[in-house]
Amino acid sequence: xxxxxxxxxxxxxxxxxxxxxxxxxxxxxxxxxxxxxxxxxxxxxxxxxxxxxxxxxxxxxxxxxxxxxxxxxxxxxxxxxxxxxxxxxxxxxxxxxxxxxxxxxxxxxxxxxxxxxxxxxxxxxxxxxxxxxxxxxxxxxxxxxxxxxxxxxxxxxxxxxxxxxxxxxxxxxxxxxxxxxxxxxxxxxxxxxxxxxxxxxxxxxxxxxxxx
Length: 212
Known about the structure:
By secondary structure, the chain is mainly alpha-helical. The protein folds into two domains: 9-74, Putative phosphatase, domain 2 (DNA polymerase, domain 1), CATH 1.10.150.240; 84-211, 3-Layer(aba) Sandwich (Rossmann fold), CATH 3.40.50.1000. 50% of the residues lie in helices and 8% in strands.
């Protein structure tokens, strides 16, 4: 969802930085992109251990995530990524199911999926649904069940290294769109079969890809 369907990662990065600063932790925005795809609680735990040098308590997790959610609601509404409405429409028109797999619990974006992309709630795997989340393959294995298909019958579009790790771990071929600030090699090393420069390049090639 974030960075593939919506240009929302800048908001996520900034709100993570501000939320951790409120707890006295200096969290670099670059690491927000490296950790994208984790559930909120997992991200907070990782950051506390790495930069706060202690485990996060349940109170820490709740306080920081509540702060982040409030900041996200105040943030500029993210635009739809270039070409992605066309990609989703073409995919559905070709008879394929579209499942959104996100570590997010942010209602400000999840609630938009139906109106913007015609994706029903039951075709969304979010941070509310998983126990482990990305980079564990769990969310993509859940998506395969919803789609009622095998891993070799599916294709994942990802923009985050942890998401690529998760889909690769589930045995699904993965195309990465590098819409953030990470070096493309990071996505390749995570297991992406193809790394594109962004969603518009994906849209330009999509008709040929789905026929293949």
